[in-house]
Design a protein that fits this description.
binds 6-O-phosphono-beta-D-glucopyranose, Glutamine Phosphoribosylpyrophosphate, subunit 1, domain 1, about 35% helix, alpha/beta, Rossmann fold, eight-stranded antiparallel β-sheet, GlmS/AgaS_SIS, 3 domains, 20 helices, Glutamine--fructose-6-phosphate aminotransferase [isomerizing], transferase
Length: about 600
């Protein structure tokens, strides 16, 4: 995933482009670049590294002053994060200047054709075919030329394009990949995401497939590929700047961890009655489908969203007594077994832009499967495509490591499990009253857990001190949570953390347990407690350093471990949310104490728009 920005107006473009890019660097931060026009000529600057590095370069060696330009921050997909592969990308004579997010799927075919025509390629990117095609088909008018070339490009991408022959124009394109036009006072913007525009304008138009945005001094035109002008229905952004500001936190990750009680309140708002669950966004789903008639229910996602899906699977299949499957999106796209309209696909994606997950949606639709999306972006790509969408309403999540996305996704999956159980009169019906009662308390319990964890984080964090690797173990829902805890430690503290089913350690991995090896043992599932305690004793018999995460009052666990992290007790199905808090804060602590940029971990991006 990368970030694109554009600006045209009465102010100096460079500071505005750089400021907008800093709000998009969660989309990728391997390199950054800008192209600025003073209406006579265009100059470019690109640097590897973060936006700050580009800014420093421009301070030391300024480029021309201008009121029009485009910018880009990159997550390297095709081609290493080098200056050559940094955007903007041009043809060899720099006649066309392009910034690109997404993937040109047919770039190799286009590239070999262009090479056979004598075009010289200098980058490893898929993007580079675009400026060369624009040269090949140049009509002398950049808008007309873009309209000719666009149908040749296959894939999902957003583009901003400038032409040296028309230095007063910026073209914006969106094909299955977000690009927004922002309307200011005698100025206009392009951005991959609302976040970058909030301090400049709240009046936007998301460019749709088949549209072209043409920005010129004093005018913005939205046109069809055929060239007909469209009058866009401008939309006012609902989010507030505060949603995106750090406030008094050091990092977005900590802010978003601490926001979870409020985020969970928003997730539950209007969906919990005294005795039941209501999800009006699924009214038409239940009119058209009988859940008990589905032969397969498959939960598909990536990363942390996949881990929340695993929690949902375990809860849903127990309550419905129907087997629920899970699949990593990238695997589902290539292997999924028999699919048809009797297979319900639940697709989870915080960003709604993850290419693997969008491809999984396409695959599901190829077989006529109904799809329900669980996403944090009510107007994201996934929400636009899915048959039904449940929004987590968690508010913007800008740290690359997902935290409130995880706990709010699980909460939606619990609500869905309850609704499905009621619709099918599943065996889990008798658990619904307790779940409802405790869901009402959930934000408060999470608040309590945040306080308890912060008070005990020093002891808890000993498990990661001076360590490069550690294990997490658990049974049932605790095992699935251990997978998420391990991912957090990998992403944020670059630790080699591995999660194992507690009962599985003795079948091989125990060979790695030597005195002092750190293990986090999750024991929050009462009905599995005895067996988990046996597994902890097996580890202690080999002098592992074990930190237990268990519910207040469970003295048996605290007696056999080296350190214990107590958390409030809740319904077993809600414990993965409660117990996620210490694991999130542990990762945050372990990453910051090592001096890492926890919001922007190396090699990662908030959502990957390439497969
Ligand atoms: C990864 C992110 O790129 O994508 C993870 O680093 C995230 O934090 C995963 O969980 C899935 O993203 P999404 O937006 O589809 O939930």
């Amino acid at each position: 995933m990368s970030g694109i920005v554009g600006y045209i107006g009465n102010s100096s473009a460079q500071p505005i482009l750089l400021d907008c890019l800093t709000h998009l660097d969660y989309r990728g931060y391997d390199s950054a670049g800008v192209a600025i026009s003073n209406l006579e000529k265009i100059e470019l600057r690109k640097e590897t590294g973060r936006i700050e590095d580009l800014d420093a370069s421009l301070q030391i060696d300024p480029i021309l002053e201008g009121h029009l330009g485009i910018g880009h921050t990159r997550w390297a997909s095709h081609g290493a994060p080098t200056i050559l592969n940094a955007h903007p990308i041009t043809d060899e004579k720099e006649r066309f200047i392009v910034v690109h997010n997404g993937i040109i799927e047919n770039y190799l075919k286009l590239k070999s054709h262009l090479i056979s025509q004598g075009y010289l390629f200098v980058t490893d990117t898929d993007t580079e075919v675009i400026p060369h095609l624009l040269v090949e088909y140049d009509t002398g008018d950049v808008e007309e030329t873009v309209r000719k070339v666009l149908p040749m490009l296959k894939g999902s991408f957003a583009l901003a394009i400038m032409s040296r022959n028309q230095p007063d124009t910026i073209i914006g394109i969106s094909q299955e990949n977000p690009l927004i036009v922002g309307f200011g006072n005698n100025e206009a913007f392009l951005s991959s995401d609302i976040a970058a525009l909030l301090s400049y304008t709240k009046e936007i138009h998301p460019i749709k497939n088949g549209e072209i945005a043409v920005l010129r001094p004093g005018e913005v035109k939205i046109k069809t590929i055929a060239g007909d002008t469209i009058h866009p229905k401008k939309r006012i952004i609902e989010w507030h700047e505060d949603d995106f500001s750090l406030q008094d936190y050091d990092h977005y990750m900590l802010k978003e961890i601490m926001e979870q009680p409020a985020a969970l309140k928003n997730t539950l708002k209007g969906r919990l009655t005294e005795t039941g669950v209501q999800l009006p966004e699924l009214d038409s789903f239940f009119e058209e489908h009988d859940v008990s008639q589905f032969r397969r229910i498959i939960i598909v996602a990536n990363g942390t969203s996949y881990h929340s899906g695993l929690i949902g699977k375990k809860v849903m299949e127990t309550m419905l007594d129907i087997p629920i499957e899970t699949a990593v999106s990238s695997e589902f796209c290539c292997e999924h077994g028999p699919l048809n309209e009797k297979a319900l696909i639940l697709i989870i994606s915080q960003s709604g832009e993850t290419a693997d997950t969008l491809s999984a949606w396409s695959e599901a639709k190829r077989y006529g499967c109904p799809t329900i999306a669980i996403t944090n972006k009510r107007r994201g790509n996934l929400a636009r495509k899915a048959d039904y969408t449940i929004c987590t309403n968690a508010g913007p999540e800008l740290a690359v490591p997902a935290t409130k996305a995880y706990t709010t996704q699980i909460t939606v999956l619990l609500l869905l499990s309850i609704l499905f159980t009621e619709k099918t009169q599943g065996p889990g019906l008798n658990r619904v009253p307790d779940m409802i009662k405790e869901l009402h308390q959930l934000p408060e319990e999470v608040d309590k857990t945040l306080i308890m964890t912060q008070d005990a984080i020093d002891q808890f964090a000993q498990v990661t001190e001076d360590q490069q690797s550690l294990f997490l173990i658990g049974r049932g829902l605790d095992y699935v949570l251990a997978l998420e805890g391990a991912l957090k430690l990998q992403e944020v503290a670059y630790l080699h953390a591995d999660a194992y089913a507690a009962g599985e350690m003795k079948h091989g991995t125990m060979a790695l347990i030597t005195p002092g090896v750190p293990v986090i043992a999750l024991s929050t599932q009462k009905h599995l407690r005895e067996k988990t305690i046996n597994n902890i004793k097996e580890l202690k018999a080999r002098d592992a350093f074990v930190v237990g995460v268990t519910t207040i009052g469970d003295d048996e666990v605290s007696e056999i471990v080296d350190e214990v992290m107590y958390i409030p007790e809740a319904h077993p199905y809600l414990m993965p949310i409660i117990a996620a808090i210490p694991l999130q804060l542990l990762a945050y602590y372990a990453g910051t104490v090592r001096g890492y940029n926890v919001d922007r971990p190396r090699n990662l991006a908030k959502s990957l728009t390439v497969e």
